[in-house]
Amino acid sequence: MLEKPRLAKGKRFSAEKLPSAYTSVQPTSCRMEAKKVLRRVKKAGNFHVLVVSITLGVAQRTLIDGQLAQFGRRTQPQMVHLIESGKLAGYDVKHAEKERKRLSRKVKKG
Fold it and tell me: Which residues contact 38 (CB under 8 A, 6 or more apart)?
């Protein structure tokens, strides 16, 4: 079994407080930058300052589209899971129905 990293004074890091290694943060940041999730705004010293370049809504839609693609664009397996786990309440269904009606009116107009 691998030993936990140690500080110079012999203190151990707790599992939750392990510092992120530059070798894991940098490639992740670069991948996110290539996907246009992050963008560089300036360089300060030897590091780059990055900011988020997409909204939370866009990120959520992308995630959900990816999940749906894994199920062959079928929503039923995910809806059944949400209902069975108790994470889909009646007001969620009402809100979804209201949004569906709003979008269908928008399509008819346009």
Answer: 29, 32, 50, 51, 52, 53
Residue span of the structural domain in which 81 resides? 56-109
5 within domain boundaries: no
The number of residues making up the chain comes to 110
Beta strand residue intervals within 5-57, DSSP E: 38-44, 47-52
Q: Which residues pair with 43 in a beta bridge?
A: 48
Other Cβ atoms less than 10 A from the Cβ of 68: the count is: 14
| Phi, psi dihedrals of residue 39, rounded to the nearest 5° | -140, 150
Q: What is the DSSP letter of 79?
A: H
Same domain assignment for residues 61 and 104: yes
Residue 44 lies in a domain: yes
Could you tell me the pLDDT band of residue 110, with boundaries at 50, 70 and 90?
low
pLDDT of residue 5: 47
* Predicted model pTM: 0.53
Q: Is 86 left (phi over 0), alpha (psi -120 to 50) or beta?
A: left
